[in-house]
Protein backbone atom coordinates (compact mmCIF):
# COMPACT_ATOMS: atom_id res chain seq x y z
CA UNK A 1 0.00 0.00 0.00
CA UNK A 2 1.39 3.40 -0.97
CA UNK A 3 0.87 6.59 0.99
CA UNK A 4 0.05 9.52 -1.21
CA UNK A 5 -2.75 11.33 0.62
CA UNK A 6 -2.52 15.04 1.48
CA UNK A 7 -1.74 16.58 4.83
CA UNK A 8 -4.63 18.84 5.81
CA UNK A 9 -4.36 22.00 7.85
CA UNK A 10 -7.22 23.97 9.31
CA UNK A 11 -7.62 26.70 11.89
CA UNK A 12 -10.21 26.55 14.65
CA UNK A 13 -12.26 29.60 15.64
CA UNK A 14 -14.45 30.11 18.70
CA UNK A 15 -17.76 31.96 18.60
CA UNK A 16 -19.25 33.81 21.57
CA UNK A 17 -22.78 35.13 21.98
CA UNK A 18 -23.79 36.85 25.22
CA UNK A 19 -27.42 37.09 26.39
CA UNK A 20 -29.28 40.35 25.68
CA UNK A 21 -29.38 41.07 29.42
CA UNK A 22 -25.57 41.27 29.51
CA UNK A 23 -24.47 44.83 30.47
CA UNK A 24 -23.00 47.20 27.88
CA UNK A 25 -19.30 46.65 27.26
CA UNK A 26 -16.70 49.41 27.67
CA UNK A 27 -15.59 51.04 24.43
CA UNK A 28 -11.94 50.14 25.03
CA UNK A 29 -12.72 46.40 24.79
CA UNK A 30 -11.27 44.69 21.73
CA UNK A 31 -12.97 41.59 20.34
CA UNK A 32 -11.19 39.02 18.23
CA UNK A 33 -13.35 38.05 15.27
CA UNK A 34 -13.21 34.56 13.77
CA UNK A 35 -10.85 34.36 10.82
CA UNK A 36 -10.92 32.34 7.62
CA UNK A 37 -9.30 28.93 7.75
CA UNK A 38 -5.56 28.83 7.23
CA UNK A 39 -4.65 27.08 3.98
CA UNK A 40 -1.27 25.38 3.71
CA UNK A 41 -0.10 23.18 0.88
CA UNK A 42 0.93 19.61 1.67
CA UNK A 43 4.65 20.32 1.28
CA UNK A 44 4.41 23.27 3.70
CA UNK A 45 2.79 21.07 6.33
CA UNK A 46 5.40 18.38 5.88
CA UNK A 47 8.13 20.99 6.17
CA UNK A 48 6.78 22.06 9.58
CA UNK A 49 6.83 18.44 10.70
CA UNK A 50 10.31 17.89 9.30
CA UNK A 51 11.61 20.92 11.22
CA UNK A 52 10.46 19.28 14.46
CA UNK A 53 12.21 16.03 13.62
CA UNK A 54 9.02 14.14 12.73
CA UNK A 55 9.72 11.36 10.22
CA UNK A 56 8.04 12.01 6.87
CA UNK A 57 8.81 10.79 3.38
CA UNK A 58 11.83 12.46 1.76
CA UNK A 59 10.60 15.08 -0.70
CA UNK A 60 11.49 18.04 -2.88
CA UNK A 61 9.36 20.83 -4.32
CA UNK A 62 9.56 21.90 -7.97
CA UNK A 63 8.10 24.75 -9.99
CA UNK A 64 9.31 23.53 -13.41
CA UNK A 65 9.52 20.17 -15.17
CA UNK A 66 13.33 20.32 -15.21
CA UNK A 67 13.40 20.95 -11.45
CA UNK A 68 11.08 17.98 -10.94
CA UNK A 69 13.38 15.75 -13.00
CA UNK A 70 16.44 16.84 -11.01
CA UNK A 71 14.56 16.29 -7.76
CA UNK A 72 13.63 12.75 -8.82
CA UNK A 73 17.27 12.00 -9.56
CA UNK A 74 18.41 13.45 -6.21
CA UNK A 75 15.92 11.31 -4.32
CA UNK A 76 17.55 8.15 -5.68
CA UNK A 77 14.50 6.20 -4.47
CA UNK A 78 13.19 2.80 -5.55
CA UNK A 79 9.88 4.40 -6.37
CA UNK A 80 8.80 8.04 -6.65
CA UNK A 81 5.44 9.69 -6.12
CA UNK A 82 4.69 12.95 -7.95
CA UNK A 83 1.92 15.08 -6.48
CA UNK A 84 0.28 18.21 -7.88
CA UNK A 85 0.08 20.78 -5.09
CA UNK A 86 -3.42 22.22 -4.80
CA UNK A 87 -5.61 22.62 -1.73
CA UNK A 88 -8.56 20.63 -3.05
CA UNK A 89 -8.97 16.95 -2.29
CA UNK A 90 -9.46 14.16 -4.81
CA UNK A 91 -6.27 14.92 -6.70
CA UNK A 92 -5.61 11.29 -7.56
CA UNK A 93 -8.80 11.06 -9.63
CA UNK A 94 -8.59 14.57 -11.07
CA UNK A 95 -8.09 15.52 -14.72
CA UNK A 96 -5.77 18.19 -16.21
CA UNK A 97 -6.75 20.35 -19.15
CA UNK A 98 -3.49 19.11 -20.71
CA UNK A 99 -5.21 15.73 -21.05
CA UNK A 100 -3.28 14.06 -18.22
CA UNK A 101 -5.44 12.03 -15.86
CA UNK A 102 -4.62 12.06 -12.15
CA UNK A 103 -2.79 14.60 -9.99
CA UNK A 104 -0.84 11.86 -8.17
CA UNK A 105 1.45 9.44 -10.06
CA UNK A 106 3.84 6.65 -9.06
CA UNK A 107 6.87 5.72 -11.13
CA UNK A 108 10.28 4.10 -10.80
CA UNK A 109 11.79 6.12 -13.67
CA UNK A 110 12.99 9.68 -12.87
CA UNK A 111 12.64 10.61 -16.56
CA UNK A 112 8.91 9.93 -16.35
CA UNK A 113 8.67 12.41 -13.46
CA UNK A 114 9.89 15.19 -15.74
CA UNK A 115 7.42 14.19 -18.48
CA UNK A 116 4.49 14.08 -16.05
CA UNK A 117 5.44 17.38 -14.41
CA UNK A 118 5.46 18.97 -17.87
CA UNK A 119 1.78 18.00 -18.21
CA UNK A 120 0.90 19.24 -14.70
CA UNK A 121 2.66 22.57 -14.20
CA UNK A 122 0.82 25.52 -15.68
CA UNK A 123 -2.29 23.45 -16.36
CA UNK A 124 -5.61 23.38 -14.54
CA UNK A 125 -6.46 20.32 -12.44
CA UNK A 126 -10.16 19.60 -11.95
CA UNK A 127 -11.36 17.41 -9.08
CA UNK A 128 -14.68 16.93 -7.28
CA UNK A 129 -13.69 19.74 -4.91
CA UNK A 130 -12.43 22.37 -7.37
CA UNK A 131 -14.43 24.88 -9.41
CA UNK A 132 -15.59 23.45 -12.74
CA UNK A 133 -12.63 25.03 -14.58
CA UNK A 134 -10.19 23.54 -12.10
CA UNK A 135 -7.21 25.09 -10.33
CA UNK A 136 -3.90 25.97 -11.97
CA UNK A 137 -1.00 23.88 -10.67
CA UNK A 138 2.06 26.00 -9.95
CA UNK A 139 4.03 23.56 -7.80
CA UNK A 140 4.58 19.81 -7.61
CA UNK A 141 6.00 17.70 -4.81
CA UNK A 142 8.43 14.93 -5.72
CA UNK A 143 8.59 12.42 -2.87
CA UNK A 144 9.93 9.00 -2.01
CA UNK A 145 7.16 6.37 -2.20
CA UNK A 146 7.11 4.08 0.81
CA UNK A 147 5.16 0.89 1.46
CA UNK A 148 3.14 0.60 4.67
CA UNK A 149 3.06 -2.77 6.41
CA UNK A 150 0.90 -1.60 9.35
CA UNK A 151 -1.18 1.49 10.09
CA UNK A 152 -1.94 3.07 13.47
CA UNK A 153 -3.73 6.21 14.64
CA UNK A 154 -2.22 8.87 16.91
CA UNK A 155 -3.34 12.37 17.91
CA UNK A 156 -2.58 15.11 20.41
CA UNK A 157 -5.46 17.46 21.10
CA UNK A 158 -6.82 19.87 23.67
CA UNK A 159 -9.35 18.18 25.95
CA UNK A 160 -11.58 20.33 28.15
CA UNK A 161 -12.24 17.46 30.57
CA UNK A 162 -8.49 17.13 31.20
CA UNK A 163 -7.87 20.90 31.26
CA UNK A 164 -5.08 20.50 28.72
CA UNK A 165 -3.61 18.31 26.00
CA UNK A 166 -4.14 14.57 25.76
CA UNK A 167 -2.70 11.82 23.58
CA UNK A 168 -5.18 9.53 21.86
CA UNK A 169 -4.05 6.44 19.99
CA UNK A 170 -5.26 3.22 18.42
CA UNK A 171 -3.58 0.25 16.70
CA UNK A 172 -6.40 0.52 14.13
CA UNK A 173 -5.22 3.32 11.84
CA UNK A 174 -5.87 4.34 8.25
CA UNK A 175 -9.62 4.51 8.84
CA UNK A 176 -12.23 6.74 10.47
CA UNK A 177 -11.30 6.84 14.16
CA UNK A 178 -14.95 7.49 15.10
CA UNK A 179 -15.83 4.09 13.61
CA UNK A 180 -13.09 2.44 15.67
CA UNK A 181 -14.34 4.15 18.84
CA UNK A 182 -17.91 3.01 18.16
CA UNK A 183 -17.19 -0.61 17.18
CA UNK A 184 -14.10 -1.41 19.29
CA UNK A 185 -13.76 1.19 22.08
CA UNK A 186 -11.23 -1.05 23.86
CA UNK A 187 -8.79 -0.20 21.04
CA UNK A 188 -8.79 3.52 21.89
CA UNK A 189 -6.07 4.55 24.34
CA UNK A 190 -5.82 7.93 26.07
CA UNK A 191 -3.07 9.62 28.10
CA UNK A 192 -3.39 13.06 29.70
CA UNK A 193 -0.28 15.26 29.33
CA UNK A 194 0.98 17.38 32.22
CA UNK A 195 1.66 20.78 30.68
CA UNK A 196 4.58 21.37 33.03
CA UNK A 197 6.28 17.99 32.48
CA UNK A 198 5.31 17.39 28.86
CA UNK A 199 5.18 13.84 27.48
CA UNK A 200 7.18 11.59 29.83
CA UNK A 201 9.27 8.71 28.49
CA UNK A 202 7.08 6.12 30.23
CA UNK A 203 3.94 7.67 28.70
CA UNK A 204 5.41 7.70 25.20
CA UNK A 205 6.61 4.08 25.50
CA UNK A 206 3.24 2.96 26.90
CA UNK A 207 1.37 4.63 24.05
CA UNK A 208 3.77 3.12 21.49
CA UNK A 209 3.12 -0.33 22.99
CA UNK A 210 -0.64 0.27 22.90
CA UNK A 211 -0.31 1.15 19.22
CA UNK A 212 1.25 -2.27 18.66
CA UNK A 213 4.87 -1.28 18.04
CA UNK A 214 7.29 -3.94 19.28
CA UNK A 215 11.02 -4.26 19.88
CA UNK A 216 13.15 -1.42 18.45
CA UNK A 217 10.04 0.04 16.76
CA UNK A 218 8.49 0.77 20.16
CA UNK A 219 11.35 3.10 21.09
CA UNK A 220 11.27 4.65 17.61
CA UNK A 221 7.51 5.27 17.84
CA UNK A 222 7.89 6.75 21.33
CA UNK A 223 10.49 9.17 19.97
CA UNK A 224 8.08 10.24 17.19
CA UNK A 225 5.32 10.76 19.75
CA UNK A 226 7.53 13.11 21.76
CA UNK A 227 8.56 15.00 18.63
CA UNK A 228 4.91 15.41 17.62
CA UNK A 229 4.23 16.95 21.03
CA UNK A 230 7.16 19.33 20.47
CA UNK A 231 5.51 20.35 17.17
CA UNK A 232 2.15 20.75 18.94
CA UNK A 233 3.70 23.27 21.34
CA UNK A 234 5.98 24.96 18.84
CA UNK A 235 3.21 25.99 16.39
CA UNK A 236 0.46 26.64 18.96
CA UNK A 237 -1.64 23.77 17.67
CA UNK A 238 -4.98 22.76 19.10
CA UNK A 239 -4.70 19.36 17.42
CA UNK A 240 -2.10 17.26 15.62
CA UNK A 241 -3.74 14.14 14.19
CA UNK A 242 -1.63 11.50 12.41
CA UNK A 243 -3.56 8.90 10.44
CA UNK A 244 -1.79 6.77 9.62
CA UNK A 245 1.30 6.69 11.77
CA UNK A 246 2.71 3.80 9.80
CA UNK A 247 5.28 1.06 10.00
CA UNK A 248 7.26 0.18 6.85
CA UNK A 249 8.61 -3.26 5.86
CA UNK A 250 12.11 -1.79 6.32
CA UNK A 251 11.41 -1.07 10.00
CA UNK A 252 10.68 2.66 9.91
CA UNK A 253 7.99 4.55 11.79
CA UNK A 254 6.71 7.31 9.48
CA UNK A 255 4.02 9.98 9.65
CA UNK A 256 2.24 9.47 6.33
CA UNK A 257 -0.71 11.81 6.71
CA UNK A 258 -1.67 14.41 9.29
CA UNK A 259 -4.13 17.15 10.10
CA UNK A 260 -2.90 20.14 12.09
CA UNK A 261 -5.32 22.60 13.68
CA UNK A 262 -3.84 25.95 14.71
CA UNK A 263 -5.03 28.34 17.39
CA UNK A 264 -5.91 31.49 15.44
CA UNK A 265 -5.47 33.58 18.60
CA UNK A 266 -1.74 32.76 18.42
CA UNK A 267 -1.32 34.37 15.00
CA UNK A 268 0.61 37.26 16.58
CA UNK A 269 3.45 34.90 17.54
CA UNK A 270 3.09 32.42 14.66
CA UNK A 271 3.67 34.95 11.90
CA UNK A 272 5.90 32.60 9.89
CA UNK A 273 3.21 29.91 9.84
CA UNK A 274 0.35 32.26 8.98
CA UNK A 275 2.49 33.96 6.32
CA UNK A 276 2.45 30.66 4.41
CA UNK A 277 -1.33 30.93 3.98
CA UNK A 278 -2.08 30.15 0.34
CA UNK A 279 -5.01 32.30 -0.79
CA UNK A 280 -4.61 31.79 -4.54
CA UNK A 281 -7.33 29.12 -4.61
CA UNK A 282 -9.73 30.93 -2.29
CA UNK A 283 -13.05 32.30 -3.45
CA UNK A 284 -12.63 36.05 -4.20
CA UNK A 285 -15.83 36.92 -2.30
CA UNK A 286 -14.67 34.97 0.75
CA UNK A 287 -11.31 36.75 0.60
CA UNK A 288 -13.01 40.15 0.38
CA UNK A 289 -15.19 39.22 3.35
CA UNK A 290 -12.13 38.15 5.36
CA UNK A 291 -10.62 41.64 4.89
CA UNK A 292 -13.52 42.98 6.97
CA UNK A 293 -13.48 40.13 9.51
CA UNK A 294 -16.64 38.63 8.03
CA UNK A 295 -17.13 34.90 7.72
CA UNK A 296 -18.75 34.27 4.32
CA UNK A 297 -19.54 31.10 2.40
CA UNK A 298 -21.49 31.26 -0.87
CA UNK A 299 -24.43 28.87 -1.36
CA UNK A 300 -26.78 28.12 -4.27
CA UNK A 301 -29.98 29.83 -3.14
CA UNK A 302 -31.49 33.30 -3.65
CA UNK A 303 -32.16 34.59 -0.10
CA UNK A 304 -29.09 36.33 1.31
CA UNK A 305 -28.48 35.88 5.05
CA UNK A 306 -26.98 38.62 7.23
CA UNK A 307 -26.49 37.22 10.75
CA UNK A 308 -24.29 37.54 13.85
CA UNK A 309 -22.98 34.27 15.30
CA UNK A 310 -22.19 31.06 13.48
CA UNK A 311 -24.86 29.02 15.26
CA UNK A 312 -27.55 31.60 14.55
CA UNK A 313 -26.39 31.82 10.92
CA UNK A 314 -26.80 28.05 10.49
CA UNK A 315 -30.20 28.13 12.18
CA UNK A 316 -31.27 30.96 9.84
CA UNK A 317 -30.25 28.93 6.79
CA UNK A 318 -32.18 25.92 8.13
CA UNK A 319 -35.40 27.85 8.82
CA UNK A 320 -35.32 29.50 5.39
CA UNK A 321 -35.07 26.00 3.91
CA UNK A 322 -37.89 24.78 6.18
CA UNK A 323 -40.22 27.41 4.72
CA UNK A 324 -39.39 26.44 1.14
CA UNK A 325 -36.64 28.96 0.41
CA UNK A 326 -32.94 28.51 -0.31
CA UNK A 327 -30.17 30.51 1.41
CA UNK A 328 -27.73 32.27 -0.92
CA UNK A 329 -24.94 32.35 1.63
CA UNK A 330 -23.70 31.84 5.15
CA UNK A 331 -22.54 35.19 6.57
CA UNK A 332 -21.42 35.64 10.18
CA UNK A 333 -20.75 39.22 11.32
CA UNK A 334 -19.06 38.12 14.55
CA UNK A 335 -19.25 39.96 17.86
CA UNK A 336 -17.44 43.31 17.60
CA UNK A 337 -19.09 44.49 14.38
CA UNK A 338 -18.77 48.13 13.27
CA UNK A 339 -21.01 50.17 10.98
CA UNK A 340 -18.51 49.95 8.10
CA UNK A 341 -18.55 46.16 8.30
CA UNK A 342 -22.33 46.18 7.95
CA UNK A 343 -21.99 48.34 4.84
CA UNK A 344 -19.30 46.06 3.35
CA UNK A 345 -21.41 43.00 4.12
CA UNK A 346 -24.32 44.49 2.17
CA UNK A 347 -21.97 45.21 -0.75
CA UNK A 348 -20.98 41.54 -0.83
CA UNK A 349 -24.59 40.34 -0.65
CA UNK A 350 -25.94 42.69 -3.32
CA UNK A 351 -23.07 41.85 -5.69
CA UNK A 352 -24.41 38.30 -5.98
CA UNK A 353 -26.75 38.24 -9.03
CA UNK A 354 -28.67 35.27 -7.57
CA UNK A 355 -29.88 37.26 -4.55
CA UNK A 356 -33.59 38.16 -4.75
CA UNK A 357 -34.12 39.06 -1.08
CA UNK A 358 -32.04 39.78 2.04
CA UNK A 359 -32.84 38.54 5.55
CA UNK A 360 -31.13 40.29 8.46
CA UNK A 361 -31.25 38.30 11.72
CA UNK A 362 -29.45 39.95 14.64
CA UNK A 363 -29.51 38.77 18.25
CA UNK A 364 -27.55 41.52 19.99
CA UNK A 365 -25.50 40.47 22.97
CA UNK A 366 -22.08 41.91 22.20
CA UNK A 367 -23.53 43.44 19.04
CA UNK A 368 -25.22 46.83 19.40
CA UNK A 369 -28.42 46.70 17.32
CA UNK A 370 -28.29 50.48 16.72
CA UNK A 371 -24.93 50.08 14.94
CA UNK A 372 -26.51 47.44 12.72
CA UNK A 373 -29.49 49.69 11.99
CA UNK A 374 -27.28 52.66 11.04
CA UNK A 375 -25.20 50.41 8.78
CA UNK A 376 -28.32 49.02 7.11
CA UNK A 377 -29.79 52.46 6.35
CA UNK A 378 -26.46 53.72 5.00
CA UNK A 379 -26.06 50.66 2.78
CA UNK A 380 -29.65 50.80 1.49
CA UNK A 381 -29.26 54.43 0.42
CA UNK A 382 -25.74 54.35 -1.00
CA UNK A 383 -26.07 51.00 -2.73
CA UNK A 384 -29.63 51.77 -3.92
CA UNK A 385 -30.93 48.43 -2.71
CA UNK A 386 -33.29 46.90 -5.28
CA UNK A 387 -34.33 43.66 -3.54
CA UNK A 388 -36.76 43.14 -0.62
CA UNK A 389 -35.19 43.46 2.84
CA UNK A 390 -36.55 41.68 5.93
CA UNK A 391 -35.06 42.63 9.31
CA UNK A 392 -35.35 40.89 12.67
CA UNK A 393 -33.51 42.59 15.55
CA UNK A 394 -33.39 41.58 19.20
CA UNK A 395 -31.14 42.42 22.13
CA UNK A 396 -28.85 45.31 23.05
CA UNK A 397 -30.25 48.75 22.14
CA UNK A 398 -33.00 47.16 20.03
CA UNK A 399 -35.58 49.93 20.64
CA UNK A 400 -33.20 52.60 19.33
CA UNK A 401 -32.39 50.37 16.35
CA UNK A 402 -36.07 49.91 15.47
CA UNK A 403 -36.61 53.68 15.73
CA UNK A 404 -33.72 54.29 13.27
CA UNK A 405 -35.16 51.83 10.76
CA UNK A 406 -38.74 53.14 11.10
CA UNK A 407 -37.74 56.79 10.70
CA UNK A 408 -35.47 56.04 7.73
CA UNK A 409 -38.49 55.84 5.42
CA UNK A 410 -36.87 52.89 3.63
CA UNK A 411 -39.00 49.94 2.42
CA UNK A 412 -37.84 47.57 5.17
CA UNK A 413 -40.05 44.71 6.35
CA UNK A 414 -39.83 44.18 10.10
CA UNK A 415 -40.13 40.68 11.61
CA UNK A 416 -41.07 39.65 15.14
CA UNK A 417 -38.87 36.56 15.31
CA UNK A 418 -36.72 34.30 13.14
CA UNK A 419 -39.62 32.14 12.01
CA UNK A 420 -41.60 35.23 11.00
CA UNK A 421 -38.54 36.67 9.21
CA UNK A 422 -37.96 33.47 7.20
CA UNK A 423 -41.63 33.31 6.15
CA UNK A 424 -41.59 36.95 5.01
CA UNK A 425 -38.31 36.55 3.08
CA UNK A 426 -39.60 33.48 1.24
CA UNK A 427 -42.92 35.23 0.51
CA UNK A 428 -41.04 38.28 -0.84
CA UNK A 429 -39.31 36.31 -3.60
CA UNK A 430 -42.58 34.63 -4.63
CA UNK A 431 -44.40 37.89 -5.33
UniProtKB/TrEMBL annotation:
| PROSITE patterns in alphabetical order | ATP_GRASP, SUCCINYL_COA_LIG_3
BP GO annotations:
succinyl-CoA metabolic process; tricarboxylic acid cycle
- Which protein are we looking at? Succinate--CoA ligase [GDP-forming] subunit beta, mitochondrial
Binding positions (GTP): 57, 90-92, 146
For activity, the cofactor(s) needed are: Mg(2+)
Write down the top EC class of this protein. ligase
Catalytic activity line of the entry: GTP + succinate + CoA = succinyl-CoA + GDP + phosphate
- GO CC annotation: what is one? mitochondrion
Give the organism, scientific name: Lates calcarifer
* Binding locations of substrate: 308, 365-367
What the record says about family reads: Belongs to the succinate/malate CoA ligase beta subunit family. GTP-specific subunit beta subfamily.
Per the record's keyword annotation, is Transferase included, yes or no? no
Relate the assembly described in the record. Answer: Heterodimer of an alpha and a beta subunit. The beta subunit determines specificity for GTP.
**Might you give the EC number(s) for this enzyme?**
6.2.1.4
State the function annotated in the UniProt record: GTP-specific succinyl-CoA synthetase functions in the citric acid cycle (TCA), coupling the hydrolysis of succinyl-CoA to the synthesis of GTP and thus represents the only step of substrate-level phosphorylation in the TCA. The beta subunit provides nucleotide specificity of the enzyme and binds the substrate succinate, while the binding sites for coenzyme A and phosphate are found in the alpha subunit.
Task: List where in the cell it is found.
Answer: Mitochondrion
Keywords carried by this UniProt record: ATP-binding, GTP-binding, Ligase, Magnesium, Metal-binding, Mitochondrion, Nucleotide-binding, Tricarboxylic acid cycle
A single Gene Ontology molecular function, please? Answer: succinate-CoA ligase (ADP-forming) activity
* UniProt: Mg(2+) binding residues: 243, 257
Q: Which domain of life is it from?
A: Eukaryota
Cofactor binding mode and count: Binds 1 Mg(2+) ion per subunit.
Residues the record marks as site: Important for substrate specificity: 79, 147
- Domain (ATP-grasp): residue spans on this chain: 46-92
Q: In which pathway does it act?
A: Carbohydrate metabolism; tricarboxylic acid cycle; succinate from succinyl-CoA (ligase route): step 1/1
Q: Which Gene3D superfamilies match?
A: ATP-grasp fold, A domain, ATP-grasp fold, B domain, Succinyl-CoA synthetase domains
Amino acid sequence: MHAHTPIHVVVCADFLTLPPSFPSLPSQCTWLSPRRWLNLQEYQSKKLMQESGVAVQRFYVADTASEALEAAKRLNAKEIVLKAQILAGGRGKGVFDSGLKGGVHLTKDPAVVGELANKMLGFNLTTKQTPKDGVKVKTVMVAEALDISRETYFAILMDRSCNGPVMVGSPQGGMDIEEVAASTPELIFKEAIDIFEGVRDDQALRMAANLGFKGPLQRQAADQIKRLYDLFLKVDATQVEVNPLGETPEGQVVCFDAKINFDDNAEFRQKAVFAMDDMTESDPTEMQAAKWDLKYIGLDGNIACFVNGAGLAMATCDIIDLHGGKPANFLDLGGGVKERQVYEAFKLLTADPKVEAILVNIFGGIVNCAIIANGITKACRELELKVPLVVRLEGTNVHEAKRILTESGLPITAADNLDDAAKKAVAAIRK
